[in-house]
Every structure is written in C-alpha cells, then in structure tokens.
Amino acid sequence: MREIVISTESGSDLPEKIVRKYDFKVIPMHVIMDMKSYDDGTFPVEKVYEYYERTGAVPTTAAVNDYEYVRFWNALREKHPGCVIMHFTYSSLASSTHQSAMIAVKSVEDVYVIDTLNVSGGCTAHMVESYNYIKKKQEKGEITDYKALADELQALAKRAVCHFIPGTLEYLRAGGRVSNAQYIGATLLNLKPVIEMVEGKLIATKKYRGTMSKIVDKFMQEFVEQYKPIKDCLYLMYSKGLEDSVLKRMAENALNMGFKTYEYVMTGCVISCHGGKGAMGLAAIIP
Asked: In the CATH hierarchy, which fold is given to the domain comprising 160-285?
C-alpha cells in the first residue's frame, strides 16, 4: 500500500500541535504589506495589526500560485518517493488558491485536490477527520483506488461546520467587505455578526449584542443545538486580542457540553487580515 501524504495551505490555520501529530504538510499563502510579499507563518500576526494601525489599510493577501504548488508537491515527492498526495484547499469560493491547485495538479502525478469548502478551523476539522478516515481504511486494507478515496474525502467536507464572530468590523470595512453605514450601525448598537460557511461561501447570518464575554455562552450553545456535532473534538477558533477569560470559558463550555476534547485554532496572518483582532469561532464535525 502506498504512503499517503496530506497537505494544505496556511489558510487552514493548522495548530502546530496538529501539524506535528498528523504530519500534515503546509505551503504558505502570502500577505502583502508596503508592496512587499511575506509568506504567511513567517512573521508574527501582530505585524498585520501594526500595519493597519499605521496605514489605516488592511494588508492584501495572495493565494498560492500554480508554479508554487508544482514545486511544493515535487519536493514532497522527493522526500516521500512513490507517495500519493491528498491536498486540501481553502474554500474555492473564498480564494483563488483552489483554482491554482487545479491548474498545478495537471503537471504532477498522483496528486488529488480536495476542496474543504471551508476556512481556518473548518479546514482543520475536515483534515483531521480525513486523516482518521484514511487510517481506518488502511488498517482494513481497503484502499486500492486513490481517486475513489479522494472523492470520499471530498464528501466529508459537507460534515465540517464553521462559524465565527469578528471581534471588530474595522478590518472588514477597511477591506471593502462592509459599508461605512453597516460599520457605524453595528458599532453604535454593539452588534456582532455571525459569519457562517454555507456551501463554501462566507455568509453573515444572525447577530449578537454585547461583548465577547457576554455572548460566548449563547454562541456556543446555539452552535451545538443547531448542528449536534460529534462530541470527539470541538475546535475553538480565535484571533490574537481575544480575552484570555473568553478563551478559558470556551474550553470550559466545550467540556461541560460533553466534548471529549477541544483544540484551540488561532487564526494566522492571512485570516487575520480579514477578521482582525479578537475574533471568536467554532468548528466541528457533524454526523
């Protein structure tokens, strides 16, 4: 049976603990500041915030291009001769990264591209579930058709759910994703929109009023009631700037709700360019 290597982009926000545990391979997306491109993950996320505070503009982001993919996958093949690569992309409806991967895959053999239809912790949840799925099939000797396996992993994307609440709308306004009127109205009323991944798209749905510390319990309760996720693991998403007390409360809630464990997923530089400081989110696998 051939070795299967799982790879993704930095927009999946995989915690280093999970990267090491599952030996996931990550290629960086890019952040552009002062007309210079930086690889995501090679600098602290605080630099994104400092840039916004200095310029009043959010850094721009760039997807992995097809040339970078080909070079990345060929390097993996050199380290893992004869392997099959399953590559999980950031949602095709939220970035051009997936499209670049689909172009690049034509130049490299035995690479299969799976669209997570998700971002950040949603990608993480999908990849961990896929890893466990692959391992079970390997133990039973059931993997003979790698294209069929890729199709099965793609189907698992429908079982990964992800919601998040931006800590501020400043970055979304600066990036042109919300209007000044929406920003002012939400700020005056202290409203925080929930952003849901719906069939690969980022959709603003309900709104909560109040601080993160006041809404965290209701947010988590309604998420669990809506999806009734499998209780193996709850992924607790956040960006730098979220209060420690809220992070602690999220963990307490996860255990009190019956989850066997939880994993913190901090947004990297690419996601933080859009969500800004102090964001909070949840991701899980549903039955």
From this structure: Hypothetical Protein Tm841; Chain: A;domain 3 (3.30.1180)
